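Figure 6 in text form: structure in, sequence out.
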């Protein structure tokens, strides 16, 4: 038990990215939006949900490290054009790429973060790097 706790702390220290109270982590695995949410939940966390630029930068750095786009915990599944966190709270911070969100093809209800840190609305069925926050 003690070894496992020390290992996790060392692992977080080496691989995690912190912003304020949050630590963001990825282990390289990928999944669609539902799988990403479930994976983070099973790990005792939440799909990474940036609420300010410091948190977005921490997530962005993980995307660059893995060279893989990632879903964030924001979507407009319930009401087209109204983006909300997983809690149902409407977002107040955003970092959309130019021209986004565009609901391309009429089916883009999830949000991916690009290697430049900007956001794009994208189909929830794509597979993306899973980044969790703790
Ligand atoms: O299927 C459309 C997506 O691949 C993306 O294509 C372009 O990058 C832009 O139109 C994006 O908005 C879109 O999500
Ligand atoms: Ca889009």
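Output sequence:
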């Amino acid at each position: 038990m003690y070894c496992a706790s020390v290992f996790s702390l060392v692992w977080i220290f080496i691989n995690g990215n912190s912003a304020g109270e949050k630590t963001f982590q990825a282990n390289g695995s990928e999944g669609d939006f539902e799988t990403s949410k479930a994976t983070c939940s099973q790990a005792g966390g939440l799909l990474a949900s940036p609420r300010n630029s410091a948190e977005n930068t921490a997530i962005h750095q993980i995307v660059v490290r893995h060279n893989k786009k990632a879903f964030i915990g924001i979507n407009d599944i319930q009401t087209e054009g109204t983006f909300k966190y997983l809690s149902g709270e409407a977002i107040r911070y955003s970092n959309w790429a130019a021209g986004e969100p565009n609901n391309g093809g009429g089916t883009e209800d999830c949000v991916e973060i690009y290697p430049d840190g900007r956001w794009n609305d994208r189909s929830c069925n794509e597979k993306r790097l899973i980044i969790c926050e703790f």
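Caption detail: The mean pLDDT is 94.
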